[in-house]
Write a structure and sequence with these properties.
Elements (H helix, E strand, L loop, with lengths): L2 H11 L3 E4 L8 H11 L3 E4 L9
Helix pairs in contact: 1-2
């Protein structure tokens, strides 16, 4: 799924945050986050290697 599609479905689901993960090598993560933000009004996070998030 694209970042825009992830944002769309997160918005439809009523999510508060979206974490983008599993990028293809060479993907511009900043551009992917912007694509998701165009579809999703909540917080968009971008996974990086060794990222740890407390739940």
């Amino acid at each position: 799924m694209t970042a825009a599609e992830a944002g769309h479905w997160a918005e439809r689901a009523g999510a508060r945050r979206l974490l983008l993960t599993h990028f293809w090598p060479g993907t511009d993560r900043g551009a992917a986050a912007e694509e998701a933000r165009a579809e999703f009004g909540g917080e968009v996070l971008v996974a990086e290697e060794d990222l740890a998030i407390a739940l």
